[in-house]
Automatic annotation (TrEMBL):
Keywords for the protein's UniProt record, in alphabetical order: Chloroplast, Plastid
Region forming the signal peptide: none
Domain HTH crp-type stretches: 122-197
Protein name as annotated: Global nitrogen transcriptional regulator
Gene coding for it: ntcA
One MF annotation (Gene Ontology) recorded for this entry: DNA binding
Length: 202
């Protein structure tokens, strides 16, 4: 991702807005806002970033998912939330009052996908496969009578490594293995996941 295409947007006021994030854009959520957020379109990776520089992934957010930061007013926090768009994404930000009205009229809201369900797997290969299957569920487009799923997202190897708690070199090796086994086709701008990935071994 070039420096010119890298943008940050900040959420720091309790008001209603719609934010547009292009692929690779990052949105920062500080602890001084108590808004609620709904993904209208797109896919996001949510990170928790601490003041000591540490950063880890806490969730994957797809279309229709709702984010409800659990915050206590007048409490000091040592972290922020960082949202990275994997494709063109629109986020609706609502004040507490408006979000209450939204919840009253939309009972089938969904929270973000917890990455614990990914990193609970023992091997890195299993974690990566589970990540790909999760993305297929969130944003995959079936092609050729469901012979494969098309993921129109930009997912760098470094991002995969952060999500599965691994290193880029390890992720690169596993992705090459899956490609050689004709289970995936990995490119910079999209990923194809073949249905044979369901039979992949650990």
């Amino acid at each position: 991702m070039s420096q010119a295409s890298y943008r940050k947007q900040y959420i720091n006021q309790d008001q209603s807005n719609i934010y547009r994030l292009n692929t690779g854009d990052i949105m920062i959520n500080y602890q001084t806002t108590y808004n609620r957020y709904v993904v209208v379109e797109g896919v996001l990776i949510m990170y928790k970033c601490f003041t000591n520089g540490e950063k880890f992934c806490v969730g994957i957010i797809g279309k229709g998912y709702t984010m409800f930061p659990k915050k206590e007013r007048h409490q000091q926090y040592y972290y922020i939330y960082q949202l990275e768009a994997l494709k063109l994404t629109y986020i609706l930000s609502m004040s507490e009052k408006k979000s209450y009205s939204y919840l009253c009229t939309n009972q089938q809201y969904k929270y973000y996908y917890n990455v614990v369900d990914i990193i609970i797997h023992k091997t890195m290969r299993q974690r990566i496969v589970q990540l790909l299957l999760t993305l297929c569920e969130l944003t995959g487009v079936p092609k050729q009578s469901c012979k494969y799923m098309l993921l129109e997202i930009a997912l760098p190897l470094s991002t995969i490594a952060t999500i599965v708690c691994s290193h880029r070199n390890t992720v690169s090796k596993i992705m090459i293995e899956l490609k050689n086994e004709k289970r995936i086709l990995y490119t910079r701008n999209y990923i194809i996941v073949y249905n044979t990935i369901l039979t992949t071994c650990s």
